[in-house]
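TICKET: design request
STATUS: open
ATTACHED STRUCTURE:
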């Protein structure tokens, strides 16, 4: 018998793919900051919605919210957010309430204001 399990790793920082950010800067030039701001605002809104859906046990809504988060997370290179949303989707698909509780907490924790200072790219990024 083979089983797949979702494994959590400690959340230290919200990781950004530097190459994706550089590509955004190249494509949008002076408008890159405004573009990223719009997308990060959408992410913030979706994470708040996910938190509410988790608290209310609205799993169908959480499924849709994760599906909405994924392309935005990918488009800005937020690898850790993408992994967290995929983890929630995996738990929902498997019907695993224990793993879902842990993965949903991890996802919704990323949107808490006290975690925003971790939303950075380490190293030299020139826009």
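STATUS: resolved
RESOLUTION: sequence designed for all positions
ATTACHED SEQUENCE:
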């Amino acid at each position: 018998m083979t089983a797949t399990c979702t494994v959590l790793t400690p959340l230290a920082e919200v990781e950004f793919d530097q190459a994706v950010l550089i590509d955004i800067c190249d494509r949008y030039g002076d408008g890159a900051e405004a573009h990223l701001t719009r997308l990060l605002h959408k992410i913030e809104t979706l994470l708040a919605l996910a938190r509410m859906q988790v608290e209310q046990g609205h799993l169908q809504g959480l499924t849709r919210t994760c599906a909405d988060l994924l392309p935005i997370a990918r488009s800005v290179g937020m690898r850790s957010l993408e992994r967290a949303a995929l983890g929630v989707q995996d738990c929902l698909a498997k019907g695993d309430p224990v793993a879902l509780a842990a993965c949903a907490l991890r996802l919704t924790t990323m949107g808490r204001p006290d975690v925003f200072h971790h939303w950075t790219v380490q190293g030299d990024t020139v826009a």
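CLOSING REMARK: Residues 122-127 have pLDDT under 50 and may be disordered. The two ends are 51 Å apart (CA to CA).
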